[in-house]
Amino acid sequence: SHFLTDVRLALGYSAVIIAAATFALDYKLGWDKTKELTLWAVVVYFVLNSALTYWIWAVEKGKIFTGVKAGALISISSQVQKNIPLYNLTIRTSPSSFSSWQTIKISAPFTRWFDEEGFFVALPFQQWLASEVPIIGQADSKRLTRTLKEELESVQEKEVESIEKDELQSPKPKGAKADKGTNSARAGTPAAGTRSRKGKN
User: In sequence order, what are the residues at sequence separation of 6 or more whose Cβ sits closer than 8 angstroms to the Cβ of residue 37?
Assistant: First the structure.
C-alpha cells in the first residue's frame, strides 16, 4: 500500500505549488496587487507544512512498508539509534482487518547485509526477514532459513547431551567405592563368625 507515501507527497507538493504560484504572481503583477493573496498563501503554506510534519511524526512513525497479502495485514517500521550500528525493525501483523495486531521486534547489525565495499546485498536481508517474521516466511518460503533462536536452542541441546554423556562415562567417586568396600567388609564379618561357630560344633 502506498497510501502513507501518497499523502506525504500530496501535502509536500501542494505546499511547493502554492509557493511557486505566489512567487510567479508577485513577479508578474507586483507586490501591491498580490500582497493580500500572498498573505493567504503564507497561511495555507504554513497549514500544509504543519500537517506534513504531523503526518510524518504521528501517523507514519517510521513506517517503511504497509501492505496486504491474502487478507493478512502487515506494517513495518524502522529505527536506528545514534552510534549504534543496529537496524531495528518493528513488524505488526494481523490475520485480517477485524483481528488484533501482533507485534514482533527484531534487530541485526548492518554488516550482515553489506559487503566489504559497502554495497547492499539483498539476499541475506530477505532471508533474515523470512526467518524472523512468519507471515513473510509463508509468502517467501524459498528464502526461509532457521532463525537465530533455533540455532541457539540446537547448540544448547548439544551441550546438554554432551554433559550427560560425560557424566555417564565418567568413573564413580572414590567415596562411593570406599563405602561399597566397607559394606562388603561389614557383610563378610558375620559370615566369618558363622563359619567359626560351625567349625567348633
Answer: 22, 25
Q: Is the torsion defined by CA of 135, 129, 102, 73 positive or negative?
A: negative
Beta bridge partners of 105: 90
CA distance 118 to 85: 14
- Residue 162 carries which side chain, given as an amino acid letter? S
Residues 34-88 have pLDDT tens digits of 888 899 999 999 999 999 999 988 888 888 888 887 778 888 899 888 888 899 9
Cell numbers at residue 192, please?
A: 566369618
Q: Which amino acid appears at position 164 of this protein?
A: E
d(CA 126, CA 144): 9
| Closest-CA residue to 102 (of 139, 145, 73, 69) | 73
Q: Residue 85 phi/psi, 5° resolution?
A: -80, 55
Q: Of the candidates 125, 129, 132, which has an alpha carbon nearest to the alpha carbon of residue 149?
A: 132
Q: Which residue has the cell 532459513?
A: 145
DSSP string, 108-161: EEGGGTB-TTS-B-HHHHHHHHHHH-HHHHHHTGGG----HHHHHHHHHHHHHH
The three grid cell numbers given for residue 113, joined into one nine-digit string: 547485509
